[in-house]
Amino acid sequence: MKFIDYLFKKIEFNPNQGYAMFYYRNGETFNKCFGKVKDSDSDDITFDSNFRLASVSKQFIAFGIVKLVHEGKLTYQTNIRYIFNDLPTYFDHITIKQVLNHTSGIYDYENMEHDENVQISDEDVFVFLKKTKTTYFEPGSKYQYSNTGYILLGLIISKVTNRELNEYIETEIFKPAKMDNSKVNLEGITKISNRAYGHIINNDNYIVKDQYWCSATIGDGGLYSSINDLKRWCKYLNNSAEFKDMKVPNIVGNYDEYGLGIRIVKVKDKEFYFHSGSTIGTNTLLLFSVDLDLCFLFLTNINGFSTTKIKELFVEYLLSEDC
What we know:
Distance between the termini: 15 Å
Strand order of the largest sheet: 2-1-11-10-9-8
Strand content: 15-25%
Radius of gyration: 19 Å
Helix content: 25-40%
Number of helices: 10
Number of strands: 11
Order of helices and strands: HEEEHHHHHHEEEEHHEEEEH
């Protein structure tokens, strides 16, 4: 397992860090779980442990939107005010596709006024958007990653289908993908089996810190899943009609990495697809490629660990080998 050896030489793991890892390449497989789901007296992390996916969640939201487009319930050029006519008039100039590929320019909800001790919901973000006056830039003219956009897309799914977002995702996406243990988390309500809790390091102490004021939103990162379910997802996604749309890169200036809810990287004329996620106490990575016969999944319950660095190591490694 040359890449795994390379990875463990390049990446420093905290001795208290819990994680689950799956790697497949050209017929070879590596699996490893390490650590506890919560504290030293809790269960061991396994391949069925459910981690908060953070921004890896975005591909499921995007998939739901693309599914609705394929069903004729939306188009990529549908403007946002067509769906929500109580939003400011500037949303007349923002399309579904611009929100999907992070070129809408809408404001970051992380900058909204808030109480650090009170979690906000997706609906609270919608109220925030109703009070905004403009965008950061002309929609479609620039790429700027937007968590707000994906919260808005989740609300659009609910509005168009007249269903709760958690019920839609679990029924229309998780179920056909056979992701039987994955959940959309309504914090304080949803029961997540085998839940891996997030941790922070404070003065060299390993502390459970799973939630903060932004942690209850769904559309930008509120899904929970495991290595075993994500393996099923990669196969299902790759074979879907929706993925053909999702993996087409959006080109704005010289930037062409993001498609619809998924990132695209080309190495020696071969593509792989990935998304990383980061939130308090949790970091995640999903990466796969049919061209390279490759799949890598990594979920960890600690903050400050760069899963993006792992992606960069993949590029570095693939460039150095005859792939």
